[in-house]
């Protein structure tokens, strides 16, 4: 009796080696996960780190005065101009004139800067000739902060510059890293992407509905299926070459937003077709049967039952393909995204640049601080992509269906 | 055990045959093929008005196929071929001039697995009515009426406009599907094993509902549950291997089957 309690019967005893191997295997599977998370964190951390730097700047003209955080740019300009002897009327009239205002904003960098010595955030207004004297990485700059502060020359200031700030998002690009911004590229991306989706969504969704609901079985369907999957895997630069030959040269659209939108639209169509088809295929056959049994025509079945039921999946597919299109640099480079576009795009035929191309150009500049500008640009782009993915996630959960 | 050869030229055994005047649907020498495979052999049968007819038989005997050929749902299967006539109110629904969509508006159908649309309860019931052009208060009245007839009204009256049909329980979903089918007042209602996916209590509720529907509708129900056929139906058809072996009033089929196969099946000695 006692003995059997001490040692359980043979049939139920565990093999210690098997358990150990199992556990080791389960742990080993965590290694690749940890490695990939670590690499991603490293990449993101490095980019964030690079987007800050400690700088010694000299403001020749501008007083480099600091203003409390929370004041509007207009208000700061007003105070700044008042200090320079302008009258209130002159200031308000020049602030209302858009051209004048832009010149003022360009000349007087209104920046959110981190003035570590005198409280957290301050606006620093500097003149046009605000020049970088030295640029230090975050770690070095903070370590040598007091030393640098002590050795400042006449009219020089020491600032911690977060390159990614509010005005970086709205400024046009510039030859000087201090005044370079990503605003024009963001607008270019918005234009190109929305036009591309305007082209790709109707074509892609329409094709998917035709193939999935009308031509279900058939040779044509099978041929198209294979080709679409292949097209979805074609390198994007091939689409870029096609766009260059066809839209830019043949149709004479030139290096315009429209040419880029058409090219990216073509690139997006196969992805949208494939994801929409999967969404349509996920709608159970029983729903179609139910609608047919109620005397619906095929068109009514498709548009009143199947498409509404498949819509969340289709929207998710469209967003994911949009996320892919945002990140494409090769096709816009080929169809004429320009290196330096100082003006915001104002129509489908205007010059443009897009965010990934802008980042690529900054990375290849030979002024070292452009690497900081590029880091800030990469952060903007990651934020845009994360936004899209979160939207897709939200929609997927919001409209989750149980059949 | 039973080969097709033995049944091929079988003459259906009929007790108390339905007269032409009583029949809402009159199937005449119906043959049906899926591609090269023949699924129905020379079926001739009449379905009487305001009665419940059950179709029983082992799996793959063609009972669902026969049911689906009554509202031309088989047309949706690729490669299907039909010979013979199905007269509905004296009109052959397989006449080339007949629009299958119009046929399906006249004949309601309830499926084996509850299949509500991913829409609100109201929109589910309103679907067929909207196809027929109902709008406004008339639409609402008929939706409520259908929910009442399907014995679902009491359970959903406070939430039927907002709640998705998919959030109901299995039995409620099936009653919703019945409400959806009867909302358009189809004279004929086809049911394809409507309780096979449900538990006994939900089955009980559906069976009570079906018996009550008899006043307004003619019902044809396919079932693989013989007790169910015995409980709800007035007439029973026994099919085997695509052949209609025997048909007659339910009590007769279950108490004094004439054909040996029918007897073997209802006593459970089959297959």
Overview of this structure, please?
The complex is a heterodimer of chains A (403) and B (271). Chain A has 403 residues and is mainly alpha-helical. Chain A contains 17 helices and six strands. Chain A has two domains: 112 residues, no CATH class; 216 residues, Orthogonal Bundle (MetI-like fold). In chain A, a hairpin with a 6-residue loop joins strand 3 and strand 4. Chain A is globular. About 5% of the residues of chain A have low confidence. Chain B is an alpha/beta fold and 271 residues long. Chain B has a single domain, classed as P-loop containing nucleotide triphosphate hydrolases (Rossmann fold, 3-Layer(aba) Sandwich), CATH 3.40.50. Helices cover 35% and strands 25% of the residues of chain B. In chain B, the strands form two sheets. A seven-stranded mixed sheet of chain B has the order 1-11-10-4-9-8-7, with helices on both faces. Chain B has a four-stranded antiparallel sheet with strand order 3-2-5-6, with helices on one face. In chain B, helix 4 packs across helix 5, helix 5 packs across helix 7 and helix 7 packs parallel to helix 8. The model of chain B has no long low-confidence stretch (mean pLDDT 89). The chains are: A mainly alpha (403), B alpha/beta (271). At the A-B interface, helix 13 and helix 14 of A face helix 3, helix 4 and helix 7 of B.
Summarize this entry quickly.
The complex is a heterodimer of chains A (403) and B (271). By secondary structure, chain A is mainly α.
List keywords for this structure.
heterodimer, A: 403 residues, mainly alpha, MetI-like fold, 2 domains, three-stranded antiparallel sheet, 6 strands, globular, B: 271 residues, alpha/beta, Rossmann fold, seven-stranded mixed sheet, four-stranded antiparallel sheet, 11 helices, 25% strand
